[in-house]
Write a structure and sequence with these properties.
The protein is an all-alpha fold and about 190 residues long. The protein has two domains: about 90 residues, Cytochrome Bc1 Complex, Chain D, domain 2; about 80 residues, Cytochrome Bc1 Complex, Chain D, domain 2. Helices cover about 50% and strands about 0% of the residues. The structure holds heme C (2 copies). The site of one heme C has 21 residues, from helix 2, helix 3 and helix 4. The site of one heme C has 19 residues, from helix 7, helix 8 and helix 9.
C-alpha cells in the first residue's frame, strides 16, 4: 500500500513539475523508503537536495566530521557513491512536500520563528530556513516534518550532540516550552 501511494506521489510529482525537474525514483530509493515512508524516520519528500547530500556524506563519514547516524542506515548508505547520493537527493526534493499542521501553540511558535528571541540572542529562523520554513540549498526544510523528530534535533543541537555551531547557538538557550511552540508551528504529526 505504501509502495502504491509512493508510486502515485512520484507520478504526481512528475506530472506537476516541469520535465527538467521531474526525477524518476532511483532503484536505491526502495531501501530508504522502508524507513522514510512514514513513522519515526524524518520526511524526505520536498527536502532540499543540497541538504540531503550533505547529510548523506555526513552519515557515511565522507564529509570528514565522522559518522554520526543515530540509527543503522549503514547498509543502505554504504552502497552509494557521489552520483548515487546526488540522484537520491534530487529525487526526494522533487517529491511534493508535506505542509505543516499547526497545533495549539502555533501562534507563539510563529512569533519565535519569525522574530527570534532577542533577550536570549536566538536569531529569527526565517533568516536561514526561509519565510515559510521551506529551506534553501543546504539549509533544511522544516515545514511539515515530524514533530518528534524536530524536537529531538533541537535538543541534540542544544546539547551539542549533533554538531553544528550555528544551530547550537540558536537552540542552547531555548526552553522546552519554546521548543514545543516551534514544533507546534512547524510540524505535521
Ligand atoms: C533502518 C531505517 C532507515 C533506512 C533503511 C534509511 N534511513 Fe535515513 N534515517 C533514518 C532515521 C531513523 C533517521 C533520523 C536519524 C536521527 O534521528 O538523527 C534518518 C535520517 C536521514 C536523513 C537526515 C534527514 C534530516 O532531515 O536531517 C537523510 C537525508 C536520510 N536519512 C536519507 C536516507 C537515504 C537516502 C536512505 C537510503 C539510501 C536512508 N536514509 C535509509 C532511518 C533510515
Ligand atoms: C544562521 C542560519 C540558521 C538559523 C538562524 C537557524 N538555522 Fe536551523 N539550521 C541551519 C543549518 C545550516 C542547518 C543544518 C545543520 C546540519 O547540517 O547539521 C539547520 C538545521 C536545523 C534543524 C534540523 C532539521 C533536520 O531535518 O534535521 C532544525 C530542527 C532547525 N535547524 C531549526 C531551527 C529553528 C527552530 C531556528 C530558529 C530558532 C533555526 N533553526 C535557526 C541554519 C540556521
Amino acid at each position: 500500500m505504501k509502495t502504491i501511494l509512493l508510486a502515485a506521489g512520484t507520478a504526481l510529482a512528475c506530472f506537476l513539475l516541469s520535465p527538467a525537474m521531474a526525477q524518476p525514483a532511483p532503484a536505491a530509493a526502495q531501501a530508504c523508503d522502508g524507513c522514510h515512508g512514514g513513522g519515526d524516520a524524518p520526511r524526505l519528500n520536498g527536502q532540499k537536495a543540497g541538504y540531503i547530500r550533505e547529510r548523506l556524506k555526513y552519515f557515511t563519514g565522507v564529509a570528514g566530521r565522522g559518522r554520526q547516524a543515530t540509527i543503522d542506515m549503514a547498509a543502505a548508505l554504504a552502497a552509494l557513491d557521489d552520483a548515487g547520493r546526488r540522484d537520491l537527493a534530487r529525487h526526494y526534493e522533487s517529491l511534493p512536500p508535506t505542509e505543516p499542521k499547526p497545533g495549539p501553540l502555533a501562534a507563539q511558535g510563529e512569533r519565535i520563528y519569525t522574530k527570534g528571541i532577542q533577550t536570549r540572542k536566538v536569531l529569527a529562523c526565517t533568516l536561514c530556513h526561509g519565510a515559510r520554513a521551506e529551506g534553501h540549498d543546504d539549509t533544511p526544510r522544516l515545514a511539515g516534518q515530524h514533530g518528534d523528530y524536530l524536537k529531538r534535533q533541537m535538543l541534540l543541537f542544544g546539547l551539542n550532540w549533533r554538531g553544528n555551531d550555528v544551530m547550537h547557538h540558536n537552540t542552547q538557550d531555548l526552553t522546552g516550552a519554546q521548543i514545543d511552540a516551534l514544533v507546534s508551528y512547524l510540524a505535521n504529526d
